[in-house]
Amino acid sequence: MENKSLWLSYDEATQNDLLAFNEGYKAFISANKTEREFVSASVELVKSHGFKDLDECFKSNTPLKPGDKVYANNRGKALDLFVIGRKPLSQGMNILGAHIDSPRLDIKQRPLYEDHDAALLKAHYYGGIKKYQWVAIPLTIKGVVATMDGSVKTINIGDDPNDPVVGISDLLIHLAGEQMKKTASEVINGEAMNVTIGSIPLKDAPKDTKEPVKANILKLLKDKYGIDEDDLISAELEVVPNGAARDYGLDRSMIMGYGHDDKVCAYTSLMALLDAGECEYTTCCCLTDKEEVGSIGATGAQSVAFENHVTMINILCGFDHHFATRRCLSASRMLSSDVSAGFDPNYPSVNDMHNTCFLGQGIVFNKYTGARGKSGSNDASAEYVAKVRKVMADNGIQYQTSELGGVDVGGGGTIAHICAEYDIEVIDAGIAVQNMHAPYEVVSKADVYDGYLAYKAFLKDMK
Ligand code: MN
Ligand code: MN
After folding, report:
1. CA pair distance 171, 102, nearest whole angstrom
2. Is 402 inside any structural domain?
3. What is the CATH number of the domain that holds 224?
4. Which ligand is nearest to the CA of 436?
5. 396 CA to middle of ligand 2, Å?
6. pLDDT band at 3 (very low <50, low <70, confident <90, very high)
7. Partner of 451 at 20 to 30 A CA spacing, among 211, 319, 322, 407?
8. How close is the Cα of 103 to the center of ligand 2, in Å?
9. Which band of pLDDT confidence, cut at 50, 70 and 90, is reported for residue 174?
10. What is the CA(72)–ligand 2 centre distance, in A?
């Protein structure tokens, strides 16, 4: 099987559809950079497509029938979507699972301090990053501050063109002699990734005010959001790259933006579920949190939240049996929709060129990921891979296969092996990315559209 650039295969109408789809994607990831934003925007979107709140359906004991659509919002940070199919749930679901968290910096619980007329926030990076990529660039602060009266304030500073941005300083090259001798992993110290947020001392401060710049920032926070310094203890503030996703390349064939990993697969999976409509089997799209730190916590893929939601679906479909959930999951088929490492012409040596993927050549299937002898991978069965191939062939979807770099070069994992623990057949299937985990990642518009078509084909036709 020889792959070639998808761009050569498009007629004018298809290319227009592709470009329109990518405009939607660019707008969505530009506005929704955090898992919380992704969930709230997705909930609004699916509600406009007739989805109902699973929790409310369960409380009111509303039976579900084929064609019914429900969503389960897990703490505003993860989302499970279901469209009930014509076959009974005991015959399994067709599931797409993607993660909506991306590498970033999180503000610490005791963040705010002053140092020589500068106010700064202590931060702790989240996920695997090259720390040196995150300094001296414009950054945005997004998230929530929860207060003891039960209210939650939304913070979003930087992406409105009228907003200020924040950032992490880097040492000037003139004085960086010692710094430049360090290895890349040490050149920026994690504890030195403090975010600069101000430099004006509070006017008319009481004489004993030791940190007047910090005092001025606290006044700003109080005036604008009604929060005190202690409220930052119960906050989730994420520092993410500033700005909107942009066309990349003179031919506008690619998109550069923050968080393609894994919002590019999350968005295409979400759109595939919406557009596939009622299918033979129940379809499901899981948008999970915390993948970049091991899928931990109540909103990560290791949580039983998904299992609980499947149980609720089964009960509302009339299968109120203690084994119904397990039987349903065990019969299910899944694509773990997560990005692949696209070939980078600047760094060819990290790949086995027979088993790598290229931007613009279609969705990528990874039979396994992992590291050091497939450790930590899922390794889909040959029989399942054959079934997936058949669906792609029947729908005329071009795809690639790949490994995550050459043997022993590095490695990484996805949620696939976690979902496989439910006895679900699953394979990694995602979109190729360049600059993965950098502040601004790159994808091909052709792959975004191909991924969407592949996910839709899987939901409709996988058996
Ligand atoms: Mn990922
Ligand atoms: Mn990742």
Report:
1. 26
2. yes
3. 2.30.250.10
4. 2
5. 29
6. confident
7. 407
8. 7
9. very high
10. 24
Q: Are residues 416 and 302 in the same domain?
A: yes
Q: Is the pTM of this model over 0.85?
A: yes
Q: Which residue range forms the structural domain that includes residue 211? A: 104-241
Q: Rounded to the nearest whole angstrom, what is the distance from the C-alpha of residue 126 to the centroid of ligand 2?
A: 11
CATH value at residue 289: 3.40.630.10
Integer angstrom CA distances of residue 75 from 52, 311, 374 = 16, 18, 33
Compute the distance from residue 390 Cα to the ligand 2 centre, in Å.
28
Q: Which ligand is nearest to the CA of 103?
A: 2
Q: Are residues 310 and 192 in the same domain?
A: no
pLDDT, one tens digit per residue, over 369-427 is 889 999 988 999 999 999 999 999 999 999 999 999 999 998 888 999 999 999 999 99
Query: Does 63 share its domain with 144?
Result: no
Number of domains within the chain: 2
Instruction: Calculate how far, in angstroms, residue 280's C-alpha sits from the geometric centre of ligand 2.
Output: 32
Both 305 and 393 in one domain: the answer is yes
Ligand 1 (ion): residues with CB under 5 Å are 261-262, 338
**pLDDT score of 39:** 98
Q: Are residues 96 and 108 located together in one domain of the fold?
A: no
> Is 248 inside any structural domain?
no
Q: How far is the CA of 40 from the centre of ligand 1 (A)?
A: 20
Q: With CA atoms as reference, report the closest residue to 229 among 337, 383, 107.
A: 107
Do 145 and 286 have their domain in common? no
3-state secondary structure of 159: coil
Long-range contacts at 394-397 (CB < 8 A, ≥ 24 apart): 394/457, 394/461, 395/453, 395/454, 395/457, 395/461, 397/362, 397/363, 397/450, 397/453, 397/454, 397/457
Q: Find the 339 Cα to ligand 1 centroid distance in Å.
A: 5
Give me ligand 2 centre to Cα 242, in Å.
Answer: 19
Q: Which of 216, 241, 266 is the last residue before a domain boundary?
A: 241
Beta-bridge partners for 370: 412
Q: Does residue 63 lie in a domain region?
A: yes
What per-residue confidence (pLDDT) applies to 376? 87
CA of 129 to the centre of ligand 1 (A): 13
Whether residue 304 lies inside any domain: the answer is yes
Average pLDDT over residues 449-462: 98
Point out the ligand nearest to the CA of residue 127: 2
At 394, the amino acid letter reads D
For residue 336, report the distance from its CA to the centre of ligand 2, in Å.
13
Same domain, 108 and 97: no
| Torsion 331-337-338-339 (CA) sign | positive
Q: State whether 115 and 78 are in the same domain.
A: no
What is the number of the ligand closest to the CA of 340? 1
Tell me, what's the pLDDT at 1?
Answer: 54
Query: How high does pLDDT run on average in the chain?
Result: 97
Q: pLDDT tens-digit profile of 63-76?
A: 999 999 999 999 99
Please tell me the distance between residue 145's alpha carbon and the centre of ligand 2 in angstroms: 26
